[in-house]
Amino acid sequence: MDLRETRIDGEVVYDGKFLKVERDKIRLPDGSTSHREFFRHPGAVVILPLLPDGRVLLERQFRYPNAQVFIEFPAGKIDPGEEHLACAQRELEEETGYTAGKWRFVCTIHNAIAYSDEHLEIFLAEDLTAGQQKLDQGEFLETFTATVPELLEMVKRGEITDVKTIIGTFWLEKILSGAWTPD
């Protein structure tokens, strides 16, 4: 069975500075029609910053839609035309002040497939060197470190609920055990 849905026409319902909301009329696999409303997102990168002592660099940041502080890996939006690795390098330095001597691509994840085309490109950053944060205007966060076992406990206790951070933690566990090797 062909499960694809085909766009007939559509419109941009909201065109914001960061997100677009689209509403498309589509043809379903059985030939009937329906509508889909979804966010267009430029994509983002996620960095798994591994310090020489095996600790991981993380952030605490308030996220307005959920009105709470979240524990997260450094991450950021990909600018138009920006290479994914260049974005990861830029975001790590801006948010944490660190630069990395070694970068490896880990994987791509799609975190909201039912209502967004957002994709997250995850990179492992190693051989870190500390520097000065270069936060964007209006950006506030604090950094801290934890071990992978500590991160796993935070996930288990529900202290980390951010999906990119949970997936990144599971990847780090596999990478550090030697079970998985990123590109």
From TrEMBL:
Keywords: Hydrolase. InterPro entries: NUDIX_hydrolase-like_dom_sf, NUDIX_hydrolase_CS, NUDIX_hydrolase_dom. Its cofactor is Mg(2+). GO terms for molecular function: hydrolase activity. Residues 39-168 form the Nudix hydrolase domain. It holds the Pfam family NUDIX. It catalyses: GDP-alpha-D-mannose + H2O = alpha-D-mannose 1-phosphate + GMP + 2 H(+). PROSITE patterns: NUDIX, NUDIX_BOX. Belongs to the Nudix hydrolase family. NudK subfamily. This is GDP-mannose pyrophosphatase. It comes from Massilia phyllostachyos. The lineage of its organism: Bacteria, Pseudomonadati, Pseudomonadota, Betaproteobacteria, Burkholderiales.
